[in-house]
Amino acid sequence: MGESYVSSKTINKLIQVHDRIFCCIAGSLADAQAVTKMAKFQLSFHSIQMESPPLVKAAASIMRELCYSNKEDLQAGFITAGWDRKKGPQIYVVSLGGMLLSQPFTIGGSGSTYIYGYVDAKFKPDMSLEEATQFSINALALAMGRDNVSGGVVHLVVITEPGTTIIAVTFDGGVVLGSDSRVSAGESVVNRVMNKLSPLHDKIYCALSGSAADAQTIAEIVNYQLDVHSIEVEDDPLVCSAATLVKNISYKYKEELSAHLIVAGWDRKKGGQVYATLSGLLTRQPFAIGGSGSFYINGFVDAEYRKNMTKRECQEFVVNALTLAMGRDGSSGGVAYVVTIDKDGAEEKCILGNELPKFFDQ
Hints:
Elements: E1 14-18, E2 21-27, H1 29-50, H2 56-69, E3 76-84, E4 88-94, E5 100-102, H3 116-122, H4 129-146, E6 166-171, E7 174-179, E8 183-185, E9 188-191, E10 197-201, E11 204-210, H5 212-233, H6 239-252, E12 259-267, E13 271-276, E14 283-284, E15 287-290, H7 298-304, H8 311-328, E16 336-342, E17 345-351
Antiparallel strand pairs: 1-2, 2-3, 3-4, 4-5, 6-7, 6-15, 7-16, 8-9, 10-11, 11-12, 12-13, 13-14, 16-17
Helix pairs in contact: 1-2, 5-6
Subcellular location: Nucleus
EC number: 3.4.25.1
Protein name: Proteasome subunit beta type-9
């Protein structure tokens, strides 16, 4: 708003300060834009120095310091929200005077006066994505209907953890791994057909989830170490050795890395094996799932998995699980990659979206 006229009807007051951190701005738009521009620069510099994405609280603290040090000159308030590897989703409010508070939800601006009753009555912890989205839209619509300096269109940003779906399962004589192919950053799909099944050796693969950059780096390091190891011992490495290398790297750098790898393969000693390596934990399992889409298929895999499945049954099990996850999880999608490994080697396959099985709600 200008003094008494509408200077812009469609300005976006949600400003991205890093990949998964946004600010909602209120008050003087010139002041708010200047502060967020400085914060964005400092966060980019900080992430380069630390070689990892910044924490949401770090972004909010930078906003608070900028507001506090210039509180006599600034007329702007901020809500800083996002997702990081340590604490997941977070919301911080930075007041006009530079006060910093962490809250499960917050509202601001002139229109907030009209919707305190609504948000206090309707907010509930652990809402689903759909419920939280509708809650936000309803609150904005009510404020825009009552407050004469709020209006125009509604801008929404949904920030989630890095999304994917990965799975690995053993059969009598080998293993089958599978993954979706979508790489997302917030609301943006940055790659639709990335293969998240990375070879560590001839008969050992890993399925990648979490930060694509972190996961790929771990896979490349382990691939190099296994090549050196196999030359030294003049034999193929064991699957457990590969999983242990992944576990060691994941544990040593667990504060910096945001990645979960499932390691699976075949060796002469123990046949087909699957290992999960979350945050440095190492556990052997008959099957394992991971990524944001795995939450939607826990019930399916628990109900449908059977011991001693054939290779074909395992392949169908993996494809069905991936299809269901991709249908429910907004961060999973694209095509399905499947790798089957046995004593004869590894067979890779890509299943296009129109070739995936159909379920009743599709």
